[in-house]
Amino acid sequence: MSQSNILLEAGTNELEVVEFYLDEFVPPSGEAPQLDENGQPVPAPSYRGYYGVNVAKVLEIIRMPKVTELPEVQHPSVLGAFNLRSRIIPLVDLAMWLGKTHPGNEEQPKTIVTEFNNVTTAFMVSGVNRIHRISWEQVEPPNKYVAAVSNNTVIGVVKLEDRIIFLLDLEKVVANLNPKLGLRLDDLGKDWSNSGYRALVADDSALVREMLRDLMEKAGFTVEVVSNGRAAWERLEDIKRRCEEDGQPISDFVHVVVSDIEMPVMDGLNLTHRIKTDHVLSKLPVILFSSLITDKLRHKGDSVGADDQISKPEVTQLARRAMVLIKAREEEAAAGGKHMTSQAV
Questions:
Q1: Is the dihedral of CA 201, 206, 210, 215 positive or negative?
Q2: In this predicted structure, which of 46-60, 255-269, 327-341 has the lowest mean pLDDT?
Q3: How many C-beta atoms surround the C-beta of residue 229 within 10 A?
Q4: How far apart are CA 129 and CA 95, in angstroms?
Q5: How many CB atoms lie within 10 A of CB 252?
């Protein structure tokens, strides 16, 4: 499979999911192993779990490559690295990372090569089924039980007629294996405590929401956080009604929106499109903050009118770039006011 389908129109609240599966050995429950007619042990039963990843994160799907072991690894699931067109790519046994045991009769595995957070990583899986085009409204947030038993690795649940697909947080896997690639807060470099601006942050990860709240509050922002694009849009509609009823500008309530792209119910691209096509909200700066911000995918944010796009590891840039956008909007508004005054004179 080649690079993700760029023909999938941005802002429609759709995504394409690569469905793959992991086969897991099911240990016998204390019973003697069954034998076939020749007296040979019958292979132990296995369980097949179905999972998914956003096509936008997938570079290609290949057969199992020849792997060279690495001298030191943080986790036994890192099988080594391989050479793919002059790129050295680490390979992670996803089943092992999830604590699963491979069945003895497993077929030739497949390798999913991904790119997100500006990092390329490959994951070994048992097999790949197909690509599904679905709406984010079909993606349900995991309940507390699913989140707990998966160590918060499941970020969404898709219910098909005959099975359930769990969307995995591969960013968390990579950050767990190499903490240097995870989100981190650096020193802002100056005291921003008197900015007085208000930010609305939408992200489905509770950890990321609190990290962004911490960062923005250190920069002097008042921060409101929500868990998906639908919640952010409903909040903005409430604010818009108040503005229209009281004759107040939108900047009396919020100065910037920061949104993830991948979120259940409504994604960040659809949220941005709605904001930028609304006659009241369109001047509100929107920053997309996502692992999907790459040179190959930046056009999606551009097409829906995002004012800025930041790749998720670059957390500390967020406050600075939000401030730049807000001040630019204030200067535009001031210049517009002076122009109207001169015309009146």
A1: negative
A2: 327-341
A3: 30
A4: 16
A5: 12
Residue bearing tokens 């942050």: 201
Helix (H) or strand (E) holding 222: strand 222-226
Helix and strand numbers (H, E) in the chain are 8, 16
DSSP label at residue 64 = P
Residues paired with residue 166 on neighbouring β-strands, in sequence order: 51, 157
Judge whether residue 184 has pLDDT over 70: no
Cβ proximity of 246 and 292 under 8 Å: no
138: closest CA among 9, 5, 266? 266
The alpha carbons of the chain give a radius of gyration, in whole angstroms, of 24
Q: Which two tokens stand for residue 219?
A: 């920069």
Cβ atoms within 10 Å of 128's Cβ, excluding its own: 17
What's residue 181's pLDDT? 63
- Cβ(213)–Cβ(223) under 8 Å? yes
β-bridge mates for residue 78, sequence order: 92
| Tokens coding 330 | 């204030």
Least confident of 114-128, 174-188, 300-314: 174-188
Bin 128: left if φ > 0, else alpha if -120 < ψ < 50, else beta.
beta
What is the arithmetic mean of pLDDT over 37-43? Answer: 62
Report angle CA 323, 326, 331 to the nearest 5 degrees: 120
Task: Return d(Cα 140, Cα 157) in angstroms, integer.
Answer: 5
Which burial class, exposed, middle or buried, applies to 36 when counting CB atoms under 10 A from its CB (0-12, 13-18, 19+)? exposed
Q: Are residues 154 and 145 in contact, defined by beta-carbon separation less than 8 angstroms?
A: no
Pairing of strands 256-259, 286-290: parallel
Nearest residue to 167 (alpha-carbon basis) of 77, 58, 272, 10: 58
- Tokens linked to 179: 């903490």
